[in-house]
Amino acid sequence: MTDPRVRKLASVLINYSLGIMPGDKLAIRGDAVAEPLILECYREALRAGAHPDVYVGLEELAEIRLKEGTEEQLRYVSEIQLKAVEYYDANLAFWSDRNTKALSGVDPRRMAISQEATRPLMQRMLERSARGELRWCGTLFPTNAHAQDAGMSLSEYEDFVYGAGLLDEDDPAAAWQKVRESQQHIADYLSRHDEIRIEAPDTQLTYRVGGRHWINCAGNENFPDGEVFTAPIEDSVSGTVRFTYPAVYNANEVEDVRLTFREGRVVEASAGKGEGFLLSMLDLDSGSRYVGEVAFGLNYGIGRFTRNILFDEKLGGTMHMALGKAYPESGGTNESGLHWDMICDLSEGRVYADSELCYEHGRFKV
Q1: Which residues are CB-neighbours of 67 under 8 A, at least 6 positions away?
Q2: Which of 69, 68, 42 is nearest to 55 (CA)?
Q3: pTM of the model
Q4: pLDDT tens, 24-48?
Q5: Domains in the chain, ordered, with CATH?
Q6: Residue 328: exposed, middle, or buried by beta-carbon count in 10 A (0-12, 13-18, 19+)?
Q7: 3-state DSSP: the chain helix, strand, coil percent, rounded to 5?
């Protein structure tokens, strides 16, 4: 029997997150492990009058391609992929795995080649999204692998996932609308300021955001959600930061990341574990040492680190920065095949906006 929360989630994704309308062309993508949620979303999309296409994959295929494909094959992008970016009105992606460590043994250089090849696809998708031509949302169907990463049983993890998505509320969409209204107040405040200064243990960092757009994330492009973000002025990031939580990227976990910035660029980098992988990603391309996103996590219902960035970057009482690609809707211009979010706890930190204390003890004071 399907968990009723799965049906509830499908309804929220189709009707609230994506706002599917009759006639919309919708792509639903995910690995077979997410089958129960894929089926319910397909059913809900039909009820909404959409024309859904479903693409179900096998996660083992990516490992085989990255380990055994030639360099030419790693760089290949099919015409079908290129046309699909232009064709659909909405994309729904399920980021669920049976084995979250499946790619941990892949040569980072080969992974970088593949990511570089698909960069134009991502760029075009973001351009269409920024212009309002494409709606997209990514979410997670709870699996044993993700539960193990989080240190929970599957049933505990299901409660965590659905609770973080406010699916225990009678009307989750209405609950997310209240989140949107609360976060908009913070986004509006930050939009009226330029220099942001962050002080926390082992962290003294400043960046400028004047003229950039703070985005209020309340369940549309990620689900669950709960953050505000923008792109810093590219050469403005200065100082040092220590990321409190492990930084996880493509199944590689890097601990105790410390970065020093000068004129926006990472000039020093170290890690207690996984430093070689960190340095290889920093040298991925000309934009990978610059910051494409700065953000504050505002979902206090998440409550714990789970080694999954969909949840961890929204942790209430944290800030995160993404090395690499900026999202066009924020006004950022940095280009890269990398977008790697790293999280810093601010429970003992302070944030100043143009020298005005606006955040303390893990919460905004505005």
Answers
A1: 105, 106, 110
A2: 42
A3: 0.91
A4: 999 999 999 999 999 999 999 999 9
A5: 4-141 (3.40.1830.10), 174-364 (no CATH)
A6: middle
A7: 35, 30, 35
